[in-house]
């Protein structure tokens, strides 16, 4: 979908994705879907909330994935 969103799971990333990487991916997704690089003031709240929700969902997804052949890290 968006070329600047990178895969955030092993073995593509050797280590666990950082909070900054997860948030950057969420921001790129919201920018792509909304069509705004930076929203106008009247859209800032909903834009920022969408980034937060997507970052949370991404972190949950990554925490729950089991990649075959990769050791599972307990959290």
From TrEMBL:
Q: Which Pfam families match?
A: DUF2277
* Lineage: superkingdom: Bacteria
Q: What is this protein called?
A: DUF2277 domain-containing protein
- What organism is the protein native to? Streptomyces prunicolor
């Amino acid at each position: 979908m968006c070329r600047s969103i990178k895969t955030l799971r092993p073995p593509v990333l050797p280590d666990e994705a950082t909070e900054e990487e997860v948030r950057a991916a969420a921001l790129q997704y919201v920018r792509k879907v909304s069509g705004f690089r930076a929203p106008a003031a009247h859209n800032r709240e909903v834009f920022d909330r969408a980034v937060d929700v997507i970052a949370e969902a991404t972190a949950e997804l990554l925490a729950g994935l089991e990649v075959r052949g990769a050791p599972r890290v307990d959290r």
